[in-house]
Amino acid sequence: MFKKRVLICTFVALTSGLSGAYLGGKINLLAHQNQCNQNTKQYLLLPKINQVCQVLVTPNAVWQGSTTGLWMGTILGAFVGGLATRHPPDEDISSDAVKDKDQE
Predict the structure, then answer these.
(1) Which of 45, 57, 70, 99 is least crowded, fewest Cβ atoms below 10 Å from its Cβ?
(2) Which top-rank group of organisms is this from (predicted)?
């Protein structure tokens, strides 16, 4: 398992990054669309203003959320992958000294 550490970390980082990009885009889009719904209540006289607002904010909202999610997901995924594949710590030096004394 430890021989393929780079491959495992890369796979976990890319998977996490793509998942973060998707979720980040969705969350940011919902937040911007909710903001459109809040702001268009004052413009009730203009028909279809809510749809126009949502069409205008969608590309930027998805782009910003996806980019942020991709970066955060990749960094956190690489960190988790590195922790999952790290080598176990070596034995304590003092315990080696005790073993050597017992063998003599």
Answers:
(1) 45
(2) Bacteria
